[in-house]
Write a structure and sequence with these properties.
Helices cover 19% and strands 35% of the residues. The protein has helices spanning 43-48, 66-71, 92-98, and strands at residues 2-9, 12-21, 24-30, 34-37, 56-59, 76-77. The protein has a 6-stranded mixed beta sheet. The longest helix has 7 residues, at 92-98.
């Protein structure tokens, strides 16, 4: 099942997506600038193979719900995210604030 919902974070709206897969969930929160995602995100691919796209994205590991994704530290971010002040270890909703 795929669930897509609007999500308000500090007065700004994002899209929360949950894809239920066998034995795991794929979680994402995005807007028109960038996104945060569960551990399935391949940050190295975005930084190396797709570097020319300058994708703003971050990965949180071990999250099982959208709420956990919002409150988890970003374990890894893309190089392009640094332009927005993102840092590894910052909480998901803090990163979203910077791209709202």
């Amino acid at each position: 099942m795929i669930t897509v919902n609007p999500l308000e974070v500090n007065g700004m709206f994002f899209t929360a997506i949950k894809v239920e897969l066998p034995k795991t969930n794929l979680l994402m929160i995005s807007n028109e600038v960038g996104y945060i995602m569960c551990g399935a995100l391949d940050v190295d691919l975005l930084n190396n193979v797709l570097a020319d796209r300058k994708i703003i994205a971050g990965r949180a590991v071990g999250v099982k719900t959208i709420d956990e994704l919002l409150n988890a530290p970003l374990e890894k971010i893309t190089d392009a995210s640094k332009v927005y002040g993102w840092e590894s270890g910052m909480i998901g909703k803090e990163a979203l604030d910077k791209i709202s």
